[in-house]
Amino acid sequence: MQWELRPQPARTKIMALAEKLTISPLLALLLNQRGLTSCEQMHFFLNPGLRYLSPLDKWPNLLSAARLVARSVTRGEKLAVWGDYDVDGITATAVIKNFFFRRGYQIAHYIPNRLKNGYGLNIEGLEQLAGQGVKTLITVDCGISSHAEIGRAKELGLKIIVTDHHLPQKDLPPADIIVNPKLGSSPCPDLAGVGVAFLLCAALNTLLPGDKLDIRQFLDLVALGTIADIVDLTGENRILVKNGLLLLNEARRPGIRALKEVSGLEPTANLGSGDVGFVLAPRLNAAGRIGQPELALDLLLTEDIQTARDLARQLDKLNTDRKKIENEILEQARDQASSQIDNPGLVLFSPEWHPGVIGIVASRIVDEFYRPCLILTRENGLLKGSGRSIPEFDLYQGLLNLSHILSGFGGHKQAAGLSLVPENLDQLKSLFNQQITQQLGPEPVRPKLVLDACLNFKDLTPVLLKELELLQPFGPGNPRPIFLGQNLSVQKQNLFGQGKHLGLFLRDEQSKITLRAQAWRKGEQWAQTNLENKNINIAFTPKLSLYNGLISIDIQIKEILDVWSGENKNKPVQDQGKFFVFKKHCPKSYSSNQS
Ligand SMILES: [Mn+2]
Question: Can you give the residue ranges of every domain in the chain?
Answer without folding.
Answer: 2-36+452-579, 55-316, 340-440
